[in-house]
Design a protein that fits this description.
Length: 202
């Protein structure tokens, strides 16, 4: 707490405008500059998006994306300040089978030549617990944009700098919502997404 001294009171009588400005600099500005948000840039090397789907309800096909970029502002004080955006290079999809990987990139599925990126940008944040956030926003995949809702969990930063943040999202989408219908119903409509984001202050 700031205490006004006798000397300052004398100065205030002599130069009230000057002293008022000094008082504002000392007492008000520090309060306004307190950090209420943290801005982060994704560590692309350690950010992973994995996915899985089933064939004939039995065999599970999995894969991941290798090129992911994004940034986030996470604020506990004002949900309106929080946002996250993610951009994924479609061409970076990977599967251990070169045949399956080629099919994923083809016109039948991701059509990476026509739709080179997959993107998500939040339009609302809702803190449900200290570490859980419900994030809602438009996902653009295969040239179609749909609003989705998922839960992100802040996880412990083992083995990384304490300044960094890690988030985990486990969710699923229906590929038919985005116009990817090849192989239905033999290849499952539901695709599970496992997202691990590691970010550092920007």
């Amino acid at each position: 707490m700031y205490v006004t001294t006798v000397t300052e009171l004398r100065l205030f009588k002599q130069k009230p405008l000057f002293c008022l400005l000094i008082f504002l600099l000392i007492a008000v500005i520090p309060e306004q500059t307190k950090a209420t948000e943290n801005s982060y840039v994704f560590d692309s090397f350690n950010t992973k998006i994995g996915f899985g789907l089933k064939v004939l309800g039995l065999k599970r096909i999995t894969g991941d994306f290798g090129t992911i970029n994004g940034k986030a502002i996470i604020s506990r004080d004002s949900q309106n300040l929080s946002f996250i955006n993610i951009t994924v290079l479609s061409e970076s999809v990977h599967n251990d089978s070169t045949y399956i990987e080629a099919k994923m990139k083809s016109d039948d599925f991701l059509n990476v030549a026509r739709f080179p990126t997959i993107s998500f940008r939040s339009n609302s944040f809702e803190w449900t617990t200290q570490d859980d956030i419900i994030i809602t926003g438009p996902l653009t995949l295969h040239g179609i944009t749909k609003e989705i809702r998922w839960v992100a969990k802040i996880v412990a930063s083992k083995g990384v700098s304490v300044q960094q943040q890690r988030y985990r999202v486990n969710t699923e989408i229906s590929r038919s919502d985005f116009g990817i219908t090849k192989g239905l119903p033999f290849i499952s409509d539901k695709i599970t997404l496992n997202i691990e984001i590691q970010a550092y202050p920007s």
